[in-house]
Amino acid sequence: NVKGEGYKIHTKLLLEEQGQEERELHPGVREVLDFGSLQVQERRSFTLRLSSPSFMRKQSERLNDDIEGMPNVRYDFVWQIRMSNGSIVQPRPGAPPYLTISPMHGVATQDDETPVRIDYAPPESHSLDGTTLRLLIPSAPGDSSYN
């Protein structure tokens, strides 16, 4: 006999905006990151924090529960950049869309927040109109994504 245990990865993505309170972004809901108007060689950044709030390991530690038997779930994430013409591109230094995402892909755990920085620094006149960023969390059919 083979027994398996399934799970669903619950994630939370927070956006830090300068001069404003952090804002939660929701999977499957299109959100706007407004970089505003920039001069050539000017830079604007956003910081996002990816976490998994469903697991209560830290609360269990405070309550001195036995956490040894609890799983340490890790999950992959990857960013996708889609241009206004529909093509998917990998960011390249000095090339449109002049976006840098760090890290572009990685592994997150439910115990920690994973910070992600998105920079826009056009070296020439440029517009991001129609460009979309998508955070994919591949886990199973019906993968989570933030747009």
What does this protein look like?
By secondary structure, the chain is mainly beta. The protein has a single domain (12-146), classed as Immunoglobulin-like, CATH 2.60.40. It contains 1 helix and 10 strands; from the N terminus they run E-E-E-H-E-E-E-E-E-E-E. It has one helix at 57-62, and strands at residues 12-16, 23-25, 44-51, 74-82, 88-89, 99-102, 105-109, 114-120, 132-137, 144-146. Strands 2-1-3-8-6 form a 5-stranded antiparallel β-sheet, with no helix packed on it. Strands 4, 5, 7, 9 and 10 form a 5-stranded antiparallel β-sheet that branches. A hairpin with a 5-residue loop joins strand 4 and strand 5. The longest helix is centred in the middle third of the chain and has 6 residues, at 57-62.
In short:
This protein is mainly β and 147 residues long. The chain is built from one helix and ten strands, in the order βββαβββββββ. It has a single domain (12-146), classed as Immunoglobulin-like.
